[in-house]
Design brief:
- The complex is a heterodimer of chains A (about 300) and B (about 450).
- Helix content of chain A is about 70%, strand content about 5%.
- Chain A is built from seven helices and six strands.
- A two-stranded antiparallel sheet of chain A has the order 1-2. A two-stranded antiparallel sheet of chain A has the order 3-4.
- In chain A, a hairpin with a 2-residue loop joins strand 1 and strand 2.
- The longest helix of chain A has about 55 residues.
- The two termini of chain A are about 30 Å apart.
- In chain A, about 40% of the residues are buried.
- By secondary structure, chain B is α+β, with helices and mostly antiparallel strands.
- In chain B, the strands form five sheets. A four-stranded antiparallel beta sheet of chain B has the order 5-6-7-8. Chain B has a two-stranded antiparallel ribbon with strand order 1-4.
- Chain B is rod-shaped, with a radius of gyration of 38 Å.
- The chains are: A mainly alpha (about 300), B alpha+beta (about 450).
- The interface between A and B is large, with 59 and 63 residues.
């Protein structure tokens, strides 16, 4: 076969390819990415988008957990105060039930119990971000409104709605407990039992005061249970936040491995591409100018 | 009769032959870098012998003419591969522009979708917050905008390819008519027995240009090349060319018609025209179709979830997105239906502090749409699709590029001019010419000797 040394065209093609490889290697080093366009690796690009999506979700779950956690903490501290207020009421009730206590003293104790009642009612009307914390999902002003006609002394103005917040793909947690469940639960009503105690202290018998004190005690134990629910929720949010932050790190490393390139590999590829390119150029410079004419002199 | 006259005549023939060879070498060297040039060789044969008694003497050299060295089969293969390469290149070029509409990071349909759903999730932790509700509306607005942008980007590219189709067809017609003209010239030259090498070279290089535009089928005949498209629509027959036409079709895009007005658009493959049509009529409609049904199904799913809940005023949730009634054009038309932050149906029971229905809205993110895929899957799927289309076209282009390089090298080894070879030939022909001239000189001297010999006899 006739051989025709067409160095010109093949060398141009080779140089172009070599320079393209060099540019790709340089781009990979400078961006730290192996995939810069969908066509670089379609499957990795699609997976990256889904992973980024997942990351955005995890970030949002974390924000949700933080928000829900601070709401639960605020509920937790309210219930702590209520527990201590109810404890005080029990002490006062026990004191009032003592047969030796004078009527004047009982009146004084009754006014203290009324003060405690007002405090508990005020705690029950705590707002969080402008919304009554224990008003269910009603968002219609205070959760409890003073009402002389009610045996509890207060009417629940909220509803029994419960909100859940997603803090994971399949994990939703309850973020509120309706006030009617905590403060006016039939048989264990904090507000009702305090009202009962105040009334008994004002005009009741020792036995009635004792019964009212017992009612406050059962309300206390019920509120304590609810308190524990909030405490657990706070712990649960904290551990979920830990999990989410790990998840976030895992996703980030997944994204890096999908489209990123190992720095050492990238540097090595670049060094190879540089060496190959300069060798090719040197070879081309040597071969190109030589023809028979150089020697026909 | 052998003799000095014969020698002189042989030497003269030789001088003419070497002159022609030198001229040919000069022409080869001059065209060493001319694209489409086919090197020529000289065809020399021995002249008729001279019989002298029992002795047979050579009769010198006869110059038969010049011949272009070409391999028609190789040329056909190069034309076919060129046609495929141009098609792959056209697709790569168009798709590379398209894939910028589907970035994996930064502002995109996928991130717009993701932001919309995270804004709904953010609202769930404080459903009465005006700021959070406004954030959902903004994210929805942004998402609708992304749908519109991608849709219009695809349509714009389609219109650009439409114009490319018209310009390709007009180039094809121009080349066809030039080739028809050269065919006529070639027939005339062949009729008078002249060298048609350079005309053939011109036809060859025009055919190569034509095969960059569309798939070409070439038949060589003595009356010139007959050219048809790959599927048999005649372009050039002898000295006559048949122009293709373009006209706006029912779908608003330019259709290619043959000389008799038949629509041959779908039959065209290969070349820039084939690649352009493949992207315009297959890749883009495919992406646009997926995008449209995605937009339509997404809007329907969100609006259905809205209808399950109540807005902040306790009213049943109204639609959040408006979209065209037909699926086609849905992505271009999708828009936010309201600017009222209260319209987001977060509540499941009508109370304004409830976030119960946000779970229904957020569930759309992972729920299967009519296509059997969730919105997240569809947006990732679109990226995969456009990336894979582009990567396939690129891979095809570089694969054909390799085989084309090989074929071109092969063609160059058959038909290309080698400077080294021509330099060597130059010296050969130079020496032969000098030797022939020397013979003329010698014979002239011998004639003198012979004449002087007569004078010497007469003088004595």
């Amino acid at each position: 076969m006739r051989f025709n040394a067409t160095f010109g065209s093949t060398i141009t093609t080779d140089i172009q390819q070599s320079e393209q490889a060099l540019q790709t290697a340089l781009q990979q080093v400078s961006t730290g990415k192996r995939v810069n366009l969908p066509s670089d690796d379609p499957a990795a690009s699609a997976a990256l988008v889904q992973s980024l999506n997942q990351s955005a979700n995890v970030d949002q779950y974390t924000a949700n957990a933080t928000a829900a956690s601070s709401q639960a903490q605020s509920g937790d501290s309210v219930l702590s105060s209520v527990v201590s207020l109810l404890n005080k009421a029990i002490t006062l009730g026990t004191e009032g039930a003592n047969g030796t206590t004078s009527a004047a003293d009982r009146a004084s104790i009754a006014s203290q119990v009324n003060g405690l009642l007002a405090s508990v009612a005020s705690e029950a009307n705590t707002t969080y971000q402008g919304v009554a914390l224990f008003g269910g999902t009603a968002n219609s002003g205070p959760a409890f409104v003073a009402d002389a006609a009610s045996p509890d002394g207060y009417t629940y103005a909220g509803n029994t709605g419960i909100n859940y917040i997603a803090v994971g793909d399949t994990l939703k947690v309850q973020v509120n407990v309706p006030g009617s469940q905590i403060f006016t639960q039939p048989g264990a009503s904090a507000l009702g039992s305090l009202q009962q105690l105040a009334t008994a202290l004002t005009s009741g018998t020792t036995a009635q005061i004792g019964a009212a004190t017992a009612a406050v005690t059962s309300a206390l134990s019920y509120v304590s249970e609810q308190h524990a629910v909030y405490g657990n929720a706070v712990n649960q949010f904290a551990s979920q936040e830990d999990f989410l932050s790990q998840e976030s790190v895992t996703l980030k490393s997944q994204q890096t491995s999908l489209v990123g390139i190992d720095t050492a590999t990238a540097a090595e590829t670049l060094a190879q591409a540089e060496a190959q390119n300069s060798e090719l150029l040197a070879a081309a410079a040597k071969v190109l100018p030589t023809t028979l004419l150089d020697y026909l002199k | 009769m052998a003799g000095l006259n014969t020698s002189l005549s042989i030497a003269t023939q030789s001088l003419m032959a070497q002159e022609a060879a030198l001229e040919m070498t000069s022409n080869n060297i001059a065209n060493a870098n001319t694209p489409g040039y086919t090197r020529e060789t000289i065809v020399l044969t021995e002249a008729d012998v001279v019989q002298q008694g029992s002795v047979t003497l050579g009769g010198g050299v006869t110059l038969q003419g010049l011949e272009s060295v070409r391999d028609q089969l190789l040329n056909l293969r190069i034309q076919q591969q060129t046609s495929q390469q141009s098609s792959a290149d056209a697709q790569t070029g168009a798709l590379q522009q398209l894939q910028t509409l589907f970035p994996t990071t930064g502002s995109s349909l996928a991130t717009g979708l993701s932001s919309f759903f995270t804004s709904l999730s953010a609202l769930s932790s404080n459903p009465t917050s005006l700021a959070s509700r406004q954030a959902v509306l903004s994210a929805g607005q942004n998402l609708a905008g992304e749908f519109n942008t991608v849709s219009s980007g695809l349509s714009t590219q389609q219109s650009a390819l439409d114009q490319q189709t018209v310009s390709d067809v007009s180039s094809i017609n121009q080349l066809s008519s030039q080739i028809a003209g050269l065919n006529a010239q070639q027939a005339q030259l062949t009729g008078t027995g002249e060298n048609v090498g350079s005309v053939e070279d011109q036809i060859g290089s025009l055919e190569l240009k034509l095969s960059q535009l569309t798939n070409l089928s070439v038949t060589h005949t003595p009356a010139g090349d007959t050219l048809t498209t790959g599927t048999g629509t005649p372009l050039v027959v002898g000295g006559k060319s048949y122009a293709l036409e373009t006209t706006a079709g029912a779908n608003g895009r330019q259709q290619v018609l043959d000389g008799s007005g038949t629509d041959i658009t779908s039959a065209i493959s290969g070349g820039d025209l084939g690649g352009t049509l493949a992207v315009r009529d297959t890749a883009i409609p495919n992406l646009l179709g997926q995008l449209d049904s995605f937009a339509s199904q997404f809007a329907a799913a969100i609006n259905a979830a809205q209808a399950k809940g109540y807005d902040q005023n306790g009213q049943a949730g109204g639609p959040l997105f408006t979209v065209s009634a037909t699926v086609a054009g849905a992505a271009a038309s999708i828009a936010l239906a309201t600017t009222d932050p209260a319209a987001i149906a977060a509540s499941s029971d009508g109370s304004s502090g409830s976030n119960g229905n946000l779970a229904n809205l957020a569930a759309v993110a992972t729920a299967k749409l009519g296509s059997g895929q969730s919105p997240e899957d569809v947006s990732a799927g679109l990226i995969y699709q456009v990336g894979s289309d582009t990567a396939t076209a690129q891979a095809e282009s570089s694969a054909i590029g390799l085989s084309l390089t090989q074929l071109t090298q092969q063609q160059s080894s058959v038909s290309g001019v080698s400077i080294d070879e021509e330099s060597a030939n130059l010296i050969r022909y130079q020496q032969a010419y000098e030797a022939a001239a020397k013979i003329v000189n010698t014979v002239a001297t011998l004639f003198n000797v012979t004449l002087n010999m007569g004078t010497a006899v007469g003088g004595s």
